[in-house]
Amino acid sequence: MKKTLLVLSFLIFVSFQVAPTMGALVEVTVETNRPTYEFSEIPIVSVIAYNPNDYEVTLEYPTAYQADHIIDGTYVWSQGMVFAQVVTSVAIEPFGSWTWIQSRYSGEVLGLGWHSVVGTTYGITSAPVSFEVVPEPATVLLLGLGGLALLRRRKTT
User: Fold this and answer.
1) What is the structure's pLDDT at 106?
2) Residue 142 maps to a domain
């Protein structure tokens, strides 16, 4: 009976000591490097995991895929990518953070207007952040000149 209690209390102690390093209580945020982008520019997105605890937190991943960002609920950064099938981990110091910096592929272009992005890691998703895509100055200039030419042509006819 004593031996069983000793083993049981040891297991409870071990599981209590190990639990904090399993990724508990990590906060995830996302940010872009700027609030506004020109039409052809590629947004740079940072997914940040913050450890608000007074102990180190280790996030263990089954592959090299660790973080992702999703724009407008449809574009997924990792879509179509292949990740090495190796166990990876990230140790975040007490009150520290870990940042993944990602950008879109150059072949994909966002439409004009406001867009929303969320970040995700370790099954935790951030609150959304918005950014705007605006026309390039040269495009606006050409549209303005075209409008002026149409007005002038309309006046002369």
Assistant:
1) 53
2) yes
Q: What is 64-117 written as a DSSP string?
A: S--EEEEETTTEETTTT-------EEEEE-TT-EEEEEEE--TT--PPSEEEEE
Q: Does residue 96 lie in a domain region? A: yes
**Widest CA span in the chain:** 106
The closest alpha carbon to 104, from 138, 136, 81, 134, belongs to 81
* pLDDT tens column, 92-112: 999 999 999 998 665 567 889
b/e code 26-55 from CB counts within 10 Å (16+ = b) = bebbbbbeeeebeeeeebebbbbbbbebee
Answer yes or no: is 60 within a domain. Answer: yes
Residues of the chain with pLDDT under 50: 2-23
Domain count for the chain: 1
Determine, yes or no, domain membership for 100.
yes
Q: What are phi and psi of 64, to 5 degrees?
A: -75, -10
**Using one digit for the tens of pLDDT, what is the confidence trace for 126-146?**
999 999 999 877 665 666 667
d(CA 134, CA 16): 52
Q: Which domain holds residue 53?
A: 21-156
